[in-house]
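Sorry to interrupt, but I need a hand with the structure work. Leave the record below and I will have a look:
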Amino acid sequence: MSAQPKASAAGTIDVGGDLTVNRMGFGAMRITGRGIYGEPQDHDQALATLRKAVELGVNFIDTADSYGPDVSENLIAEALYPYPDDLVIATKGGMTRSGPDRWASDGRPEHIREACEGSLRKLRLDQIPLYQFHRPDPNVPYAESLGAFAELKAEGKIRHVGISNVNEAQLKQAQQITAIVSVQNRYNVKDRESQAVLDLCEQEDIAFLPWAPVQQGNENVGVAVAARNHGVTQHQVILAWLLASSPQMLPIPGTGSPEHAAENIAAAGLELTAQELSAITYGG
């Protein structure tokens, strides 16, 4: 692996058929305060992290109005506006915050609309390229929530619709309401409960954004061996494994450190052998 591969080394993916992005993205959750709440401890470092990611070829940034709340979206605009022509900002609506590490669902159509309009203002966008429903709300029929997304798309406020934290049935239901171009579910070396959803995304040509992509991967013996073989970190191996596991995979590792962002992005240029991939996939 060269000194600093860029995000383009991972190849590209077409999101929605008309948004071509490098397959190594950036998740902007951890540029906020502790517990994903409030302002970051180091404001300038948060801005530098976003700028470093874009400098290294990242042109897909994932965020949400609930990160902070509002903090992540405001920082993205402060750091990167006016945006590069090829930068795709994906954000999410449908969750509220009452304190550090405290999350609540709100899938009411009126809340979705309010959240979307707030994200447009904070991100300084005329249209959100990809707007995602953050999590199904058990107190609101799923079709009602997704109906709000379909309306916002029809009004031109959002270009494409994505969903998050869903099962196969919810993905299929959502597809009956509006075109779905992305799914963001928890997926990593240890937790592959969403494998069936990923398989469906491959069949339907839907981008799959794994959240918590590197969590608990250090327990995998195959990861440790591959890291030693290549002289890289275990996190880099895990990201390379994700990229190799599916052409629909669009990893969005997050961090509040420019150095760590560069390290993650360098994984785009790491090629694991078939034996290493198999050891990670089937190893413990």
